[in-house]
Structures are given as C-alpha cells and as structure tokens.
Amino acid sequence: MNKERLERALPKLSTEAYEFTSNEDEIYNCIAWALNDTRQYWWPTPKYGCYWPPGVPRDNTLGSVKRIFELHGYRGCQTGNREAGYEKVALYERQDSGVEHVARQLQSGEWTSKIGEWEDIRHPTLEVLECEDYGSVTLIMKRLRPEWPT
Which of the 8 DSSP states describes residue 27? Predict the structure, then answer.
C-alpha cells in the first residue's frame, strides 16, 4: 500500500479518513470494480484485451459509460446520499477527455473506488477524489438491491 503515491495523485485524500481495501491489481479497473467484476479490465481501447460491452460505442464519453450502467439496471438520480435498498455509482468526468473514474457506494453509505491499476479504497465522500486527472462527479446513478435492507 503506497499512501504517499496515492495522496500525490489524489491530494484531497490527505485530509480525509480513507482505508485501503485491497492490494494493487492490474486485472480490473474502476468501471469493473463499480460493477463488482474483478475478472477483467473495462475500457474502450481494444488494445491489451480490455473488455467493452457489445453495442456500446467504444469511447469513454458520459453517454457511453452511462449506457453501460443502464444495461446493469442503473438509472439517474439526484444525489449521492445513501438510500436504503439502493446501490449508487458516481461518474467522474473531465470536460476534455470524458469519464475518467467511477466510484460505487457501499451499503453503509461510504464509497469504494479502484484507483486505476492501484489499490481499492474506501472513502467517505465523492469530493475527495475530484482532481485534475479524474475531473468531477457529473452523474450519479442508482439501482435497486433487493437483498439490501430497506
């Protein structure tokens, strides 16, 4: 776990309580992690064997990434506040390059993120990951999780 490297890349993390929840792993990335898939790397670039769902344009525009989550039962919502019985994701977008990160809300209301090919972390808010590389949260989506208590 490389705390210094992580806080250099995501400077707002240094002021928040966060926790490493995995070791580094190049097999999956933030989109995969948000969809509970640790078997493959989801990215529109076909090189390196990256997975991208059929029928979704091979780009990381907000529309394409939103479509992926819609295919998995997510719909747009207003806030990242915890809602009993719902799992949420937040899409971070840079205006010049598209969606660069996705975080998933845990049942507790905290958030979890896979930081590129680095570790997974648990973080208290969405704002702590907003930075030059990731941009800011531009869309929050939710899906019903029947197994989660309401």
Answer: S
Cα angle, residue 86 at apex, residues 80 and 90 outer, rounded to 5°: 35
In percent, the amount of the chain with pLDDT more than 70 equals: 100
Give the E-state strand segments of 14-119 in sequence order: 19-20, 75-77, 86-94, 98-105, 111-114
Chain centre distance of CA 130:
12
Ramachandran class of 36: left when φ > 0, alpha when ψ lies in -120 to 50, beta otherwise: left
- The CATH number corresponding to 3-144 among 1.20.120, 3.90.1720, 3.30.450, 3.30.200 equals 3.90.1720
Q: Are 66 and 91 in contact (CB under 8 A)?
A: yes
- CA 23 to chain CA centroid, nearest Å: 17
Q: What is the pLDDT of residue 16?
A: 80
Per-residue pLDDT reduced to its tens digit, 24-78:
999 999 999 999 999 999 999 887 789 999 999 999 999 999 999 999 999 999 9
